[in-house]
## 1
Amino acid sequence: MEPNYQHLYEILANSQGYIFPNEIDLQWGILIVVYPFVTGLVAGAFILASLERVFKDKILKPTYQIALLTALSFLLVATLPLISHLSQPQRAYEIMITPHGSSAMAIFGFVYLWYLMVVLLLEIWFDYRHSMVVWADEKKGIMKWVYRILTLGLSDISPRTLTWDRKLGYFITVVGIPSAFILHGYVGFIFGSIKANPWWSTPLMPIIFLFSAMVSGISMVMLIYMVVSYIRTKTMDINVLDSIGKYLFFVLILDFTIEGLDQIHRIYEAEESFETIKLLVEGKLYLTLFISQGLIGTIIPLIVLAFLQFYKGKIKLRKTLYFIIGILVLIGVYSMRWNVVIGGQLFSKSFSGFTSFKVGLIGLDGTLMAAFWLILPFGILAFLLWLLPPWKMVQEEE
Amino acid sequence: MGNERVKSSRRKFLKSAATASVAIVGYTWLKSSQFLIHAAEPEDKNLPWYGIVIDIEKCIGCGMCAKACKNENDVPAEPFFFRTWVEQYTVKNDGSVEIISPNGGIDGFKQTVPDEDIFKSYFVPKMCNHCAKSPCDQVCPVGATYTSPEGVVLIDEKYCIGCRYCVQACPYGCRFIHPEKKVANKCTLCYHRIKKGLAPACMENCPTGSRMYGNLRDSNSEIVKFLKEHTTQVLRPNLNTGSKLYYNALSSEVR
Amino acid sequence: MKFYIPPQLTRLALAFAIFITLFIVLRNLLVPDTFGQYGHYRGDSLIDNQQPEIHYSGQEACLDCHQEIEDMKQTDVHNTIRCEVCHGPGEKHVSSGDAADISKPDSREFCGVCHEKNAARRQSTIVQIRLSEHNTGKKCIECHNPHQPWEMKE
C-alpha cells in the first residue's frame, strides 16, 4: 500500500517559522500520552495501598485490596500502548533479550518486570493466599483448579505459615514503595534524559512524574472505591473518602509546588530555548497547560480540598465533591502527560518554528485505540474483583 | 522393597534432571555474559575514524547534495524525509533571522527577502553529524543503532523496532522513520560507497567541493590539514554530542 | 531446632527459578548469532549496510568512454564539476550504454539552481544572473555550451 502523505502536506502548510524537514511528522502520538498516564495510575494506586499497610492507616483498609487490584489491572496494560505504537511491534521482544545498557527505554523493561513480578504479584499473592486456599476447597469444577493453580499448589494454612504470609507481605510492601517510586520516576527519566529536547530535559522530570502519578493514582482509587460501593449497593464510608482526600490534598500541594519550581527555574534561567518555549506555552499549549492542567486539574481541586479540610458539610455534598474532584484531577494529570509528550514535539529543535498535531479518530495511533487502552484496565479490574473479591476474603484475627 | 526402588529411581531421575538443568542454565549464562553490560566500542587504531567538513563559504545552495542523496539511498521524494538538506539563513537589518529550506533545497532557492533588507545571508548544508558520543546511539533500546568501528553511525534495519526514541534524541533533526520500511533511517555517510572507495553521493555531487570527509586519525589526510588551517565549529557544542561534522565559517545564528 | 524456611518461599523460589530458566533459554535461542561481535549490535549489520546498490558510478566510470568531453571541460570554469552533478545517477547508463538511461537537463531552471542571483551566493564564487531578465525565452544552452560555458556559440 502506498503511504498517504496528505496529512503531512497539511501540517507542512500550517507550520510556523522554520522547522527541520524531518520534524514535520510527530513521532510520538496519543498512545505515548496514554502510556505514562496508565503507568502513573499504577504507581499512585500502589502507594495509596502501602499507606494502609506500612503506615498502619486503618481507615484506609477498605480500599487496600481495591488499590492493589487497580494497580495490577493498569500495570498489565501499561506496556501495551507502547508496543502497539511501535512500527515493528513483532520485534518488541528484542528489548528484553538485548537491552542496551545506556538506553532508558531498555532498562524500563526490567524495572517493569521487577515491579510486576516481585512487587505487585507477590504482595497480592501473600495477601490472598489464605483466601485462595479456602476458595479452592469450597469451589467445584474448573474454578477449584484455577484457585489451586493460583496458590501454586501450596495449601498450607497453618497459623505459623499464615504469620509468614503477613510478615513477607509487609516486607514486600516496604520494598514496593521505593519500587513504585522508581517505576514512575523512571518513566519521567525516559523523557527527562533527552538532552536534545529542552522541554523534557530537566532533572526534576522524574520527580514531577512521580508526584503527578501519586495524585492520579489516589484519585483513581477513590473513584473506583466509590463506583464499586455503588455497584455493590454498599454505603461508602465517608471517613475513607475524607482520609483519601487528605492525602490527595497534601500530594497535590507537593505536585503543584514542584511543577511551579520547574517553571520558575526555566523562566529565570531563560536558556537558548526560552523564547521558543514561551511561545509554545502561550500558544499551542495554552488550553491544555493553563486551563486544563493548571486551573481544572490543580487549582480548583486544591481550593475545594482545602475547603473540605476545615468545613465538614453534609455527607452527600462531600461525596459529590470528592467524586467531581477525582475526575478533575484525572483530567489535569492526563493533560500534563499531553503537555509533556505532545508539547515537547511541537517546537522545532532549531528553536525557530512549530509544527502542529491533529489526532486521528481511527488507525493504530488514533483516539479509539487510545480509548481502548484506557478502558481495558477497567475490564481487567472487573474480572479481578470477580476472581479475587476483597469482600469475600477470609478474615484473620490479629 | 518395591516402594523403596521406585523412590530411589525417582531420586536418580530428579538428580540427573537437576544436573542437566544446571548445565543448560550455566551454559546459556556464560554465552550471554554481556547480559545487561553495555559493550564498549572496540578501539581499533588501524581503522579510519571518519569526520566530515562542510565549508559554508563554498556552498552555493544548489541542493545537488540533497538530490543526489535521495537518488542514491532510495529516500522517498516527499519533502518530509531527508538524510541531508540545505538551509538558507537570512539575517535582516532589523536583526531578525529568516530560515528557509524549501523541499530541502532540492529545487533550488528563491531569494525571499529583498536585497535592501538583508544584513547577510548564507547557506548551511545539514546532515548527520556522526557524533562520537551520539545521543541517538545512546538511547536505542535494542542496539539497532550503533557506531561502526569507523565512527559511522548506522542503523540495523532488520533489528530496529521502530520506537522512534532515536528520532527524539537527535538534536539535529537528522533522523526520520522510513515510511515504507517502517524503521528509523538516516545518513550512513554512504557506507556502501565509502567501503568501495567511492565518495558519499552528496560529496561526489557537490559542484563546489564544499563537503569533504576523511580519516581524523591520519595526520596527513586532507581533512586534518583543513581542520588545522581553518577555524571550525560544530553544531550545538553545549550538548557534548562529540559531533564529527565540522563547519568552516559557521555563523552564530545556526542551530 | 532446624532453621525454619516458610513453605511459601520455597514454592516461590521454584516458580522464579522456572521463570528465569525459561527466560535465559529463550534469550539464548533468540539473540542473533553475530550480536555483540563488535559492540552492542548485530555484527552482520555492518555487511547489510554495504549491500545497497550504487546509483552514482563516479567520475572514473564516465571517463572510460567520454574522455573528449572531459578534455573540453578542463579548458573552462566547469572543470571541477563532475559529470553526474548535472547528468544525474549514471550507473544504469554505464551498464547499458544506452543514451536514454542518462538525463541531459536543458531547462533554464536547471541552470538557475546554481546561477540564479541570490544574496547568499558570493559573486566571486559563482557567476549569477536573473532568470527573469537574462535573455528570457531562450534556453541557456543556445548560447552556452555547458561543458565550455564561456566559449559562446553563435
Note: DSSP finds 15 helices and two strands in chain A.
## 2
Amino acid sequence: MEALAKSDFLAKGETAAKPLVLWRPTAKTGLLSWLTTVDHKKIGFLYGISGLFFFIFGGFEALLIRIQLAVPNNSFLTSAQYSEMFTMHGTTMIFLVVMPMGAAFFNFIMPLQIGARDVAFPRLNAFSFWTFAVGAVILNLGWFMKDGAPDAGWFGYAPLTTRHFSPTHAIDMWVMGLQLLGVASIAAALNFIVTIINMRAPGMTMMRLPVFTWMTLFTSFLIVLSFPAITIALVEIMMDRLFGTNFFEVSNGGLPILWQHLFWIFGHPEVYILILPAMGIISEILPTFSRKPLFGYPIVVFSGASIGFLGFGVWSHHMFTTGMGTTATAAFALMTMAIAVPTGVKIFNWIGTLWNGHLTMRTPMIFAIGFLWMFMIGGLSGVMHSAAPSDAEQHGSYFIVAHFHYVLIGGSLFALFAGIHYWFPLMFGRKVSEFWGKTSFWFVFVGFNVTFFPMHFLGMEGMPRRTFTYDGDMGWNVGNMTATIGAFILAIGVAIYFLTMIYTFFKGEKTSKDPWDARTLEWSLPNPPPEYNFKVIPTVHARDGWWYEKRHTEEIQKEQAEHAKEDEAHGGIHMPYQSIYPFLASVGILIGALGVAVIDPASTTQDPGFWGPKVAVTILGGLIMFVSVVLWALEGNDGYHIHLNEDGSIKSEDHHAGH
Amino acid sequence: MSSTAAAGAIDHHHDSTTVTGIPNKKLLMWAFLASDCMFFGCLISTHLIYRLHPPPGTPNARDVFSIELTSFSTFILLMSSLMMALAVNSIQKGNLKSLRWSLLTTIFFGLIFLGCQVYEFRNFVFEKHLTITNSILGTTFFTLTGTHGLHVLIGVIWLTAMLIYSFTGRLTEKDAIDVESMGLYWHFVDIVWIVIFTAVYLLEYL
Amino acid sequence: MIAPASTAHASGHELEQSKFWIFVQLAMLLAVITGLELVTVYLPFMKWILVAALVILSTVKFMFVIFYFMHLRWDKAFCTILFFIGLVLAGGTMWALLKLFSVADSKPLTLDAPAAIVRTVA
C-alpha cells in the first residue's frame, strides 16, 4: 500500500529549510488560469483548439489549391503563391493539425485511462504546449510579412532551401518553426513515456493498458527517437543559411542528398506518429460499439510495437528514384513490404472485433468503420510503392498525393473525428446530435472520395505533384474538375461537423456518466471530469477496468471506501500548483527564435556591426528563457492538498508550506 | 509521517511512489538520453559521410589536428566524470561538504575541457586556416565538436547552479535524484566524447 | 554544514563504501584504455585490425561509463532497456547511412567524372 499513498511530497515537507516563496498563481478562471494551467485536461483542450483552428487554416489553403487546379491554365494563384499554399498546407496539416490533435487526446484521455491524477511532469507539459504554440506562430508569421510564407515544400529539400535559392526569411521561419515544434513534441513525448511507465494505478499492468494508451506510448517513443534526426537536419540548413557553412553547398563538397536521408529518417517514423494515435482511437471505439472486447489484444499491441520499430528502417523508400544502389534499394523495398504485415494484422483484428458483435451504429462507430475502409485503400496503394520499379513510375505524381491523403484523411482524420465524437460527452458532458453527426459523416465521406479517388488516375496519367497548372490537352481536365467539386463537398461536410460541435458545446443535450456503456477507466468519471480526476485512485482488476467495475459494484465500493480513508490519512489529494514559468520560458524562446529567423542583420557582412540587432534580440530571448527556467526550478514541484465531500465537491484546500 | 524518512535510510535505487520503482526524473533523463543518442548519431554520421567523400582541396585532417591536446582534454573529461560519480555518491550519503568539493572539481575539469576546445578552435582557425566556411571538413568538424561543447557548457551551467543551490540549505539527501539526473547528463556528454575521440580524431591517424 | 547528514546506512553500507574505490579504479582503467587507443593508431598493422581494435576499445569505455558511472549496473533493468532502444536505433541508423554513402553510386561527380560516364556508356 506504500505505493498508493503518494507520500513523496509529505516526505519532502519535513526538511527544516523554508521553501522559497515565489509567486503562485491560483486563478481558476480567466486568461491567467489558462496561461498558468498545469492541468492535463486543460492543456489537452488547448492542443485540441489550436489543432482545430489550424485545421480550418490548412483546409482553406487546400481549397485555394483545388480552385487553382480546377481548370487548365488557371491564373487564380500565381506559381509563387501556389508554392506557398502547398508548402503551408502540408506543414500545417501534419505539424499543426494531426500532431496536436493527437497530443490533445494523449493529454486528455491517457492519464484518465491509466487512473492517474496528472502527468508525471505537469509544468513540462504546459511548456510543451506553449512551445508548440510559439512554433506555430513562427511558421505562419510569413503570411503577414513581405517575405511571404515558406514555399519549399513540407520536406524542404536542399538545396532549394539554401540561401542561394531562397534568400528571404520565409525558409528561416520554416526552419525555426519546425525546430521548436520538434522541441515541444519531444518534451511532451518524454512526459507521456514517464507517465505511462510510472504513474499507472495499482493493478494496471502493462498488458492491461487500454490500446489507446499503448499507442500513446509507441507514438511517444517514435517522437523521441525520430525528431532528433530532423533537428540535426534543420541545424545544418540553419548553419548554412546563417553562417555560410557547406553542408548542402555543392560547390564546396556538400551533399544535398544527405538532407533527404536525414529528413526521411525523421519523416517516415513521423508517418507512424500520425497514424498510431488514430489506430489507438479506433481500437477503443470498435469494441465499445461492438459490445465485445478487442479481438487479439496482445497481437494488436505487438503489431503496434513492430510498426514502430520497423518504421525506422524504411525511410529510403521515399528516395528510390535517387539512385542508392541496388542493395540498398532492395533492402528498403523488403523492409517496406515487411511493415505492411503488422498493419494488416491490425486490420484483421479490427474486423475480428466487429465479427459477430452487437454493432450499434452511432456516429463514432460510423467514422471508425469509415476509417477501416479508407485506411485500407491508403495502405494498399502504399504497399504498391514498396516495389521500387513500380514506385519509380508513381514517384512525384498525383498517385502519391492520392495515397497519402487516403492515409491521412481517411486514416488519421477520420479517426480523430471519431475520437472527438466518442469522447465529447466525457469532455463536456454534452452529446452530439446523431442526425447531424451522421450527416457530416456522409458529406465528409463522399466529398473525400470524390476528391481523392480521381487523383489515383491523374497520377497514373502522369500528372506531377506540386505543379501549379497544366495544359488542357493532357487529359487531366475531368479528374481535376471532379476533385475540386469533391473538395467543396468535403468542406461542406467539415463545416457541418464543426458547426454541430460548436452548437453542442453550448446547447447540446446533457448526458449522464458513461453514455456509451464503455469499457475503459476514463468513463468511470463524472462528466466533465473534476480537476483532481479520480476521487479515489482506482484499483484495476481486469483489462477492461471500468467494465469490471460496473459488474462488481459492491466489491469496488468497499475497496474505494478503504482507499479513500487511506488517502485522507495521508493528507488528502495532492494537486500541483499552477505556474507561469513554462509560459514565460516559451515567450523567451519566441523572442530568441524571432531573433534567429526574422530580424535582419544591420547591413553588409563586411560591417562589424553586422550581427548587432540579430544577436541582441536572440540573446534577450535566451536570457528570458534562462531566467524563467531557473525560477521554474527554484519554485519546485510543490502542491497543495484538497479534501473532498461525499459528492466529490471540494471541501477544503490545504496550503501547508513545503508540501 | 513517512516510513522511509522515519527509518533514516533512503533507498536511492527504489522510489516507492512510482509503479516501476524508478524515480520519474531518472526515467525522464534516460529517455532523453536515448533521444540524444539519435541526435549525436545523426551528427556524427554527417561528419563521417562527408569524410568518405572529401572534395578536392580538402586539408589533411592529420595536419590540422593536435592529438596531444585532444588526448589531454579526453583525459580531463574522464576525470570530471569520476568526480561527478563521486558527487552523486556524496549526496546519496547526505555528505554536503564532499558533494561541494566534488561538484567544484567537476566544474573545474569541465571548464578546462572548454578552455582546451576554445584554444583548439582558435588554433585551427588562425594558425591552420581551417574555418567553418572554407571547407566541408571545417563545416562538419566545428559543428559536431561545437555542438558537443555546447552540451558541456550547458552541463557546466547546470553544475554551477547546483553548487550554488547546495549553499541554500534546501539541497538534502532526499534531493539526491536531482544531482543524480544531472550526473547522468554529464556522463552522457562524456560518452559522446568517447565516440567523437575515436571516430573524429583517432580514425584520421590510421 | 547547513544540513548535516544524520543518517547512516545500515544496509548496503559496504557497497556504498566500496563504490568510491570502484569509481577511482575505473577512472584509472579508462585513462589506461585511452592511452592504449592512442598507441593503437601508430601500430603497423592492417587498417581493418586497427579500426576493429579502436571500435572495441571505445565500446569497452562506453560500456564501463554507462554501467558503472551511470549506475545502470545497480539500477532497474528498464533503464538499460530504455537507453539501449535509443542506442541500438542510433547505431543502426549510423551504420545504414554510412553503408548508403559508401556505395559507388553515391560518389559525387567530380570534374572528370562526366567523361568517365560517357566512356562507360560508349
Note: Residues 18 and 24 of chain C are 10 Å apart (CA to CA).
## 3
Amino acid sequence: MTLSNEQILAQLAEKMPGAALSSEIARDGILNIHTTREQIIELLLLLRDDEQLGFNFLTTLCAIHYPDNAGQELGVVYHLHNWQQNVRIRLKIFFPIDDPHVPTATGLWPTANWMERQEYDFFGVIFTGHPDLRRILNVDDMEVFPMRKEYRLEDGTRTDKDDRFFGRDGHVGQSFD
Amino acid sequence: MQVQSYFSSLDSLDGELATLNLGPTHPATHGIFQNVLKMDGERIVSAEPTIGYIHRAFEKIAEHRPYYQVTPLTDRLNYCSSPINNMGWHMTVEKLIGCELPKRAEYMRVIIMELSRIADHLVCNTVIGVDTGALTGFTYMFQERERIYELFEEVCGSRLTTNIGRIGGMERDFTPVFHKKLKDFLKTFPARFEEFTGLLERNRIFMDRCIGAGPITAERAMAYGFTGPNLRAAGVDYDVRAMSPYSRYGDFEFDIPVGVNGDTYDRFCVRQEEIRQSLRIIHQAYNNLPEGEYHAEVPDYYLPDKPDVYTKMEALIYHFKVVMAEVPVPVGEVYHSVEGGNGELGFYLVSDGGRQPYRLHFRRPCFIFYQAYPEMIKGSMLSDAILTMSSMNVIAGELDA
C-alpha cells in the first residue's frame, strides 16, 4: 500500500500540527507543503525518521527568488524521496531577502553540505549552523549573488522583443535580457 | 583516531605532514578539479576539494533562453552521455505541457539513451583500467565508443554534444544507415566487450589494485545522496528506470546489478554488468520497435516539416512561433528525473508561463556525490585516491554546471 498525499497530510496534522501552512498538488503530482523556516528542521526530521512517513532521501534542495513577493522574496525548496514507498514530497519555505537566514540541514543529511553552499553562492541564503558556508562554484571574491533576479545576463538593451506585439503583458527588452 | 596513528607511522618524514596540491590540471585527474591534500608520506590525512573551474552558469543562462534552447546546455552537463541529459530535459518539458509521446518515439529514445549509457560506462571502466596501468582495454573500447558516436551522428548530426531529440519526440526517424550500423554494433560489440572483460575483470593485478580502494558503506552513500552505479556498488538497488519508469522502461526486462563493498572494484563490476543490461534493453526495444510516428502532434512545440514551412501558411506560422518561443506554456512546476550515467539526473522546472523557465534547477549526481570524496580517500594511499576518483566517474561538466 503506497503512501498517498492525503495520508501524508493527515500524518503531519497529527504529529506536528501547524507545520503545514498550506499544501497543493503540483503539475507533476508531487505534494507541495509550505512551512516556515522556524519549523523546517523539525519537519524534515519528522519526515525522515517517522516510520510511516519514511522520507529517507534528500534528493535536492534549491533556492528561488521572487522579487515581487514583499517580505517573502527568497525561498528554499527541498525535494525528499521515500524510497520504500516511492513517494516524493516538496517542502517550501519563504523568507525576506533582508534576513536570508535558514537553519542548515547538514545535521540531517551530509549531502546538504554542498547543496546549501551552492544556494548560498548563488542566492545568498545564509544557512545558519552550516559547518563551512563558503562560495563553491563562483570565485571567492565575488561580491554579488548572481542568481538573484536583479542581475541581468546580458545588456538589457534589446528592443526587438516588445511583449505587447506578442499578446503578452510585459516590457520591452526584459524577457531575453 | 585513525588519523592519529599515521602521525606516528614510519612513513612520515620526521613526523611532519606535507601539503600536496593535486590539480587543478593534473594528467591523473581527468578533469579540472583541485584537491589540496595533507599527506603523511604517501597516505592522505585529509583532502580539501575545490570545484567550479568550468562553471558556466547554466541555471542562470537557462532563465534567459526559450525551452528548446536549454537543450544544448544540458549537452554540456555530463558530456559522456549527452543524449540522456537531452531527453531528460525534453521529458521535463513534456511533463509540464502534458504531452504524450507515441510508442515508437519512446522506444527510439530508449535505444539512444541505453547506447549513451554504454558509451558513458565504457569511458569510466576503461579509464579505471588506465589508472591501474592497463592502457590496452582503453584503446580497444574507444573504437566501440566511436561506433556509438557514429550512431548518434546518424540520428542528429553531432557526436559529443548531441542536442538530440526535440520537445515532443525525435527530430527524424532512424535512417537506413542507422539501422545497418546498429545491427552491426549489436552483433559485434558483445564479443569485443567480453574481450575487454577478459583482460580486467578477473585479472589478479587489477583486482588487487581495486578491491578495497575507496570504499563507502550503503548508509553513508545514501546519506551523501549517492545514486546510480556508485550507490548500487554499495548494495542499494535504487535505479530511476525501475523506480519511476519513464519513456516506457516498464516494458523492458532488465536486472539491476548491485555490489557489496562499495569499493572501486564493485563500482567497476556494476558498470560492467550495466553495459550488458543496457544491451539487453536495446535488443528488446529494437526488436519490438513499433511502427508509427516518431514525434507527438504538438504543433505548438514541435517544428513542422521544413518543406511545409515553404509552402503552407499554417506551417509557416507555427515555425515562426516555435522559433520565436511564442508558444503557450502552462504555469506550474515539475520535477523529472532520469537515470543518467552517474545516477539520478533531476530537473526542477518552475514556469511562470513566460518564454523561458522562471527557475531551472539541475540535480547533478556528480556534484552531489563528489562531496563524499574526502571521506572516501581519508587514510588511503595517493594512488588509490586517483583510482577512486576515476571509478566514481566525476565528470567536470556535470560537477560544475
Note: Chain A has one domain: 5-132.
## 4
Amino acid sequence: MSQKVLLNAKEVNIILHRLACQLIEKHNDFSNTVLIGLQPRGVFLADRLAKILKEDYKVKNIKLGHLDITFFRDDFRRGEKTLEANTTKINFLVEDKNIVFIDDVLHTGRSIRAALTAIQSFGRPNEIELLTLIDRRFSRHLPIQPNYRGRQVDVINNEKVKVNWKERDNEDSVYLIEK
Amino acid sequence: MSELSVNHLLGIKYLNKKDIQLIFETADHFKEVINRPIKKVPSLRDITIANLFFENSTRTKLSFELAEKRLSADVINFSSAQSSVKKGETLIDTVNNILSMKVDMVVMRHPNPGAGVFLSKHVKASIINAGDGAHEHPTQALLDSYSIREKLGEVAGKKVVIVGDILHSRVALSNIFALQLQGAQVMVCGPKTLIPKYIDKLGVKVETNLNKALNWCDVANMLRVQNERMDISYFPSTREYTQQFGVNRELLDSLDKEITIMHPGPINRGVEITSDVADSKQSIILDQVQNGVAIRMAVIYLLASKIKQ
C-alpha cells in the first residue's frame, strides 16, 4: 500500500479560508443560511469552516447541523455489513432556508443523493448547495456537482482519497492511497 | 462494524451483551428520527413484514406496525380470530402460505411457549417473537431496559424489582434475562402462589413483602395480574391482592428514596398501581411506550440487514 500527499496542513488551511470567503460572498451574513455537515466525515470540515467563519471573519449566528444519511442510503442489504448509523444533530427547521451540504470527498454522489432525501425530514429548504474539500473527477454515478470545491483530483479506481483532521487523526492532510 | 449475533429475535436468552448494546445504540438514532417533523426513513422499502397475532394485543401490535411503517416496510396484518386457523390449518402451513406471497419477516405473538423457536426451524423468514405464552417477550424487555438506561443513565448495578404475577408473565422472564445480562440485580415480588417454584435458580432474589422490596430497589416494574391465564384461584380476592401488592402514593412516600415506576401495560388502575402513581413524575410508563417504537425499529432494522438479497 503506497500513499502520496495531495494536500498538507498549510494547503488545507489556505483552501479552508478560500472556501469560507466564497461562502461569505454568496451568503453575506448567513442570516438565512444553514451549514450541514454530512456524517461521518463531513462534520469535521463543517465544524472547522464554522469556526473559521466565526473567529476569523466575525460572522455571527452561524447555524450548524450534522446530518446522518445511513437510513436513507441506497445500498441497504447490498453489502456484507450492517450499515451503522451516526448521530444527527439538527435542532432547527430548514423550511425556506438556504442549505450548504458539507462533505470531505465527493465521489459517486450517492451520499449526496441520500442527504437530499434525508434533509426533507426537517422541512422544505429554499435552496441546497454542496461544498466539498476534494472533488474526485470522472467518478460520478449521478448528476451531482459541487458548488464549492477545495481541490479537484483525478483518482483511478484502485486508489482512495483519505482526509485527515487534527481533531481526530492528529494532523490536517489529504492522502491518495493505493489499495 | 458490528451486527447482531442472531438471525431471529426469539428471546433475550439467545442474545449477548453486545447485541443489546447494538440494539440500544441503533434505537438512540431511531428515537431521534421519530421526533423529527417527518418521522419516516426509507431503509426497508424492499422488505415485507407479516404481523401474525394468534393472541390479542393492542400496544405491541400497534407499536410493531408503526415501527415497520416508519421504516417504510410493507406490512400485512393477520389475527387468528378471522383466519383459517379456525378451520384447522397448522401453524407451519399458515405461515408458509403467507411466506409464499414473498414476505421477508414475521412478527408473531402466539399463546404457546416456543412457537417462535419452532417456526424459525421450519420456515424461511426472519422471526421476531412478540410474546409466546408465558415464555418470553423480548422487545418488551429491551424497551424496559432502554427506558431504565434513559432515566438512570445505565442499567448495570441497578436494583430492579418485578412485582406481581411472575408465574404467568413472559415480560418477567425476558426482563430477568435482559437485566442480568446488563449487570443489574433482579428481585421478584408477589404472592407465593404466583412465583414459580425454582425461580431462584435464575439468580434472582425472591421477596413476598412489597415494602421490603421497594426499600431495596431503584426501579419497580409492576406487572398486571393476568386473570385470563388463571385457571384456578391464586389469591383470595383482588382487594386483598391490592392491599398487599398494590403500589399507592402513601407507600411510595414512606420510602426514604425516590424509585422509578414502570408498567408494561395494560394497567389495571387501582389494582397493581393507583392512578396517582401511574400518572406521577416517578412513573415512566408513557416513555416506555414511546421507546417501544424506537426499540422495535432498531430490532427490525438490524435483523432486516441480515436478510440476503
Note: The first strand of chain B starts at residue 48 and ends at 53.
